[in-house]
Specification:
The structure is a single chain. With 95 residues, this protein is mostly helical. Helices cover 98% and strands 0% of the residues. The protein contains one helix and no strands. The radius of gyration is 40 Å and the shape is rod-shaped. This is FBA_2 domain-containing protein.
Length: 95
Amino acid sequence: MADDYQREADRSAQHLRNSENIRISELTKQERRLQPSIIVESNDEKREKEYLEKKEKLIQKVREQRVLEEKNQCLLEIINALFFESGQMARTNIL
């Protein structure tokens, strides 16, 4: 009787080991199938990161260009004002 219980316990243990091995095999297959998509996803993430960095650099260049244009406009206004004042002063001296 004890031998029957032992054989049944051994069969149950073997069945459990087989089930675990099958599950591990299934998980390994799933992992292999998922792995390429993870690589593609990380490549997509890399491209998106590069795109966002380039976009931010371009935005920064546009901002810098606008600041330069504003400074140039201010300088032009100052130059025009100085020429206008010097012209007014020249006319006043002539009169």
